[in-house]
């Protein structure tokens, strides 16, 4: 007894399109044809399709099944590799579930790790976006410093003023804010230097990390804020240059 392509697909629990695809990629040998030109499949074809479908359902790619050939009834290496990949996937999904549980319980922002998300709740949009970018360019030492800084929230009036300074603020306002902000920023830089100067352990390299941070600052903060930051940096550098002589 033989079967048509449709009948074979129905028996194997798959589709005619899948059977034809198996032919196209060399997984299934072409059967003999009847006098009317239609393909006629036998038991061997059915067993082959069932085996292909079973291995595919287990997660083995069709390309890998093709490499096995038809004689490997127990693809030990392929199954072992698949098992290791699944173990890694399960571990990753379990970590994600733990993070999701923390995010849902704390009500924190999902674009930051849970141990940083709570601090993000009181950030401006610009600060939060900037922090997200920092998490991508800082290495282990920088991320550790960033966590420390976020958990070390200090009430500094000048920082609150910086958050709301309008883009068209006059020069006197910007100079005054920079002078009041510089001591606070200087303390942060001294305590968390890995944030202001990305280390060599950055996943993108220190140079690209610095370039990315600079571009993020320009895109996320308004012109007055950028001017204040430049003035703050100049004041801090001036203090560092004067300190040896003092």
Report on the structure:
By secondary structure, this protein is an all-alpha fold. The protein has three domains: 5-70, Multidrug-efflux Transporter Regulator, Chain: A, Domain 2 (Orthogonal Bundle), CATH 1.10.1660.10; 74-106; 112-245, no CATH class. Helices cover 69% and strands 0% of the residues. The chain contains 13 helices and no strands. The chain has helices spanning 5-12, 16-24, 43-58, 62-68, 76-106, 114-120, 125-137, 140-150, 157-164, 171-191, 193-196, 206-220, 223-242. Helix 1 (5-12) crosses helix 3 (43-58). The chain starts with a helix and ends with a helix.
Shape: elongated
Number of domains: 3
Oligomer: single chain
The average pLDDT value, as a whole number, equals: 86
Structural class: mainly alpha
Listing every helix as H and every strand as E from the N terminus to the C terminus, the arrangement reads: HHHHHHHHHHHHH
Query: Main beta sheet: strand number and arrangement?
Result: none
DSSP helical segment count: 13
N- and C-termini, Cα separation: 101 Å
| Rg, Cα atoms, Å | 31 Å
Write down how many β-strands occur, each being a DSSP E stretch of 2 or more residues: 0
The portion of residues assigned to helices is 55-70%
Please report which band the strand proportion falls in: under 5%, 5-15%, 15-25%, 25-35%, 35-45% or over 45%.
Answer: under 5%
Unreliable spans: 242-246
List keywords for this structure.
single chain; 246 residues; mainly alpha; Multidrug-efflux Transporter Regulator, Chain: A, Domain 2; 13 helices; 69% helix; elongated; disordered C terminus; Transcriptional regulator, MerR family protein; MerR-type_HTH_dom; DNA-bd_dom_put_sf
């Amino acid at each position: 007894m033989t079967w048509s392509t449709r009948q074979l697909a129905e028996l194997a629990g798959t589709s005619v399109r899948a059977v034809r695809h198996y032919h196209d990629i060399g997984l299934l040998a072409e059967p003999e044809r009847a006098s009317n030109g239609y393909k006629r499949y036998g038991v061997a074809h059915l067993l082959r399709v069932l085996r292909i479908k079973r291995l595919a359902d287990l997660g083995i790619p069709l390309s890998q099944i093709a490499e096995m050939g038809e004689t490997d009834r127990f693809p030990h290496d392929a199954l072992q590799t698949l098992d290791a990949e699944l173990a890694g996937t399960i571990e990753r999904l379990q970590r994600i579930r733990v993070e999701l549980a923390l995010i849902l319980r704390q009500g924190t922002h999902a674009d930051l790790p849970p141990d940083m998300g709570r601090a993000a709740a009181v950030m401006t949009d610009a600060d939060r976006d900037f922090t997200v970018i920092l998490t991508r360019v800082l290495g282990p030492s920088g991320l550790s410093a960033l966590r420390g800084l976020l958990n070390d929230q200090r009430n500094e009036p000048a920082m609150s003023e910086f958050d709301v300074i309008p883009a068209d603020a006059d020069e006197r306002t910007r100079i005054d804010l920079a002078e009041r902000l510089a001591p606070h920023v200087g303390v942060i830089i001294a305590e968390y230097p890995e944030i202001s100067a990305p280390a060599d352990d950055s996943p993108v390299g220190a140079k690209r990390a610095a370039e990315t941070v600079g571009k993020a600052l320009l895109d996320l903060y308004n012109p007055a804020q950028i001017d204040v930051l430049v003035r703050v940096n100049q004041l801090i550098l001036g203090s560092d240059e004067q300190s040896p002589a003092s």
